[in-house]
Design a protein that fits this description.
2 helices; 5-stranded mixed β-sheet; about 15% helix; alpha+beta; 4-stranded antiparallel β-sheet; Immunoglobulin-like; about 150 residues
Length: about 150
């Protein structure tokens, strides 16, 4: 009788998700930081796109006039893990910042305007070529990305 009770409880636990992988919460983190080029902030509204290496999920944000940023799009909580980063000059996107995510996946369009004050080298516009990557840990994270002119 006790054995049947244990088997019934085990089946009930597994059937309710107690033993399945669907109820496992993935570690999440948040990201704030600063974007500069050789120590100097880039223009406000420069776009940053963060692509999760294992899932391909994109998160994006815009800088303020001091180069500071905080990821909130599409959501504030990001999956923990390795990310590849791309940077989109403010002159190549609209006010929504959506192009920051799109630019991470495609090469720059021919004839696109360039930021006259500080040109961002083309390699930074594609996450797989930028050389910018980092590990996002669970909880709050703070990162500085300092681009090089060449």
């Amino acid at each position: 009788m006790a054995r049947r009770t244990l088997l019934a409880l085990a089946a009930l636990t597994i059937g309710c998700g107690g033993g399945g992988s669907g109820d496992v919460k993935r570690p999440m983190g948040t990201l704030k930081g600063k974007l500069t080029m050789q120590g100097t902030p880039l223009p406000a509204k420069t776009g940053l796109a963060f692509q999760h290496a294992s899932t391909g999920t994109l998160y994006y944000t815009l800088t303020d006039e001091s180069g500071a940023f905080e990821v909130t799009k599409p959501v504030k909580d990001m999956l923990a893990g390795r990310y590849d980063v791309s940077v989109t000059p403010s002159s190549l996107r609209d006010e929504s910042g959506a192009e920051a995510a799109e630019a991470a996946l495609e090469p720059p369009k021919p004839g696109a305007k360039k930021t006259p004050e500080r040109e961002i080298p083309g390699k930074y516009r594609q996450s797989h070529l930028s050389g910018l990557s980092f590990e996002l840990n669970e909880g709050p994270n703070n990162r500085t990305f300092d681009l090089q002119a060449r």
